[in-house]
Write a structure and sequence with these properties.
Number of strands: 0
Structural class: mainly alpha
Number of helices: 16
Strand content: under 5%
Shape: globular
Distance between the termini: 82 Å
Largest sheet: none
């Protein structure tokens, strides 16, 4: 592709309006995630506890903004003032849980629909990460770590509110902490936040901002589609394992086990002799 045409395409992507189509895709997949998290009892739960079902779905849809606002000292419920987006979230929630003969859920699960919505949601995620970094940069111009944290939370806030979101539905799962076992979306949002901070605050990245943004969008979309079509769920795992082995004590623990393998036997022999 011609470089100028590629740059023009990148500029078009960065100017995309999220409302209403990308908001619909985001809300649809969030409602679908809540339903799948409920498992086989999702239909019965939605009939018996519609308020809890709606609240948990809205919490997933608006999680990034709520958590980021809470950390930045802004009103936690401020994202809910966006009435059109709230209406979209409510309509998609009803579509997934309450349509006759479960048509809405089946349509959302239909592979072409799911692929299209997933690609749109990753474009939406890139926009949220960038907005989070930009907003934090205005409040704390020199606090790079705050920019990265807010960008990460904006990108995958639902992962960090999963514990509370399940609690709203009456399920207590204290091990469902994103900090204990980060998902790929949290890691990807973290990497994207770091790149956006480097692009915004340093001279380390010389490429035009539109290309940097477009590259992150491609990164998000590519690995999301890979997880759906190819089953590649977390490409960071091999690098994490290598890093942990080299710098987090993995090699030294293995070496200590090898060197100390015969030591307990010698100790037991000595104790037998003394007895």
């Amino acid at each position: 592709m011609d470089p100028e045409a590629f740059l023009d395409l990148a500029n078009q992507v960065i100017k995309l309006k999220m409302y209403p189509y990308f908001d619909v895709a985001h809300s649809l997949l969030c409602a679908l995630a809540v339903r799948e998290d409920l498992g086989s009892g999702a239909q019965a739960f939605s009939r018996k506890h519609p308020l809890a079902c709606w609240l948990s779905t809205m919490l997933v849809i608006f999680a990034g903004g709520m958590v980021a606002n809470g950390l930045l000292g802004e009103p936690v419920l401020a994202p809910l003032k966006n009435t059109p987006q709230l209406l979209i979230g409510t309509v998609t929630w009803y579509f997934v849980f309450y349509t006759p003969f479960d048509v809405g859920y089946k349509v959302a699960k239909f592979l072409p629909v799911k692929i299209t919505a997933s690609a749109m949601k990753e474009i939406y995620r890139a926009k949220k990460v960038y907005d989070g970094v930009s907003h934090a940069a205005k409040l704390y111009p020199n606090a790079y770590i705050i920019m990265v944290i807010v960008g990460t939370l904006k990108g995958n806030g639902a992962g960090f509110t999963k514990l509370f979101e399940r609690l709203v539905r009456g399920a207590w799962t204290p091990t469902a902490m994103e900090t204990m076992q980060p998902s790929f979306y949290t890691k990807a949002s973290l990497v994207a936040s770091v790149i956006f901070v480097l692009d915004k605050k340093t001279d380390l990245i010389s490429a035009p901002h539109a290309l940097v943004y477009f590259g992150i969008v491609i990164f998000f979309v590519y690995f999301k589609l890979s997880s759906i079509l190819l089953g590649i769920h977390d490409p960071f795992v091999p690098f994490e394992n290598l890093f942990c082995a080299l710098f987090m004590g993995g090699i030294w623990d293995s070496l200590a086990k090898l060197l100390g393998k015969g030591q307990p036997k010698e100790e037991t022999k000595d104790t037998k002799k003394t007895n």
